[in-house]
Amino acid sequence: MTRHWSGAPRPMNDDDPQAEITLDRRGRFKRLSATVPGLIRPLAKARGTALASLLAEWPQIVGDELARASLPDKLTGTTLRLLVVPSAALVFQHDAPRIVARINAYFGRSAVARLSLVQGPLPVIAPQRRPVRSSLPADRQAALKSATEGISDDRLKAALERLGAAILARDKS
Hints:
Elements: E1 2-3, E2 9-10, H1 32-47, H2 49-62, H3 64-68, E3 70-76, E4 79-84, H4 89-94, H5 96-107, E5 114-119, H6 138-148, H7 154-170
Helix pairs in contact: 2-5, 6-7
């Protein structure tokens, strides 16, 4: 739908009556930065950012051995549904309180109260190949350490050091 100068919506074409171009009060296109949050908000609400961060950090949260046998599927309220390989379901049931404690420690709050285990095959995910990084010269490593030494949060400090090392390794000059 396009907006007529009077502000009334009108269809863009007959093929897609739902398509809409958003114009500001002067009749110009609205900035993308003003439109995108409204489009992303329903998607983030439906899927949730907590599950996305769990998926990204799952091996670090539960350990490599348990991560190979499970995958977070859905977070509903305080219940986390895990897809679990049938042969490891008993281990997960036994270690559920420890896993819940690790997840809550990761979030820094009581985000998960119980696990719901669903037995079945895990989806096949192609392993990500990490590029081989060349080590930084000692002077650049020292400069990176001195730049982050004032940061008290250890996780933030480590993340910034990894980011800085990646940038410095890419920047050969």
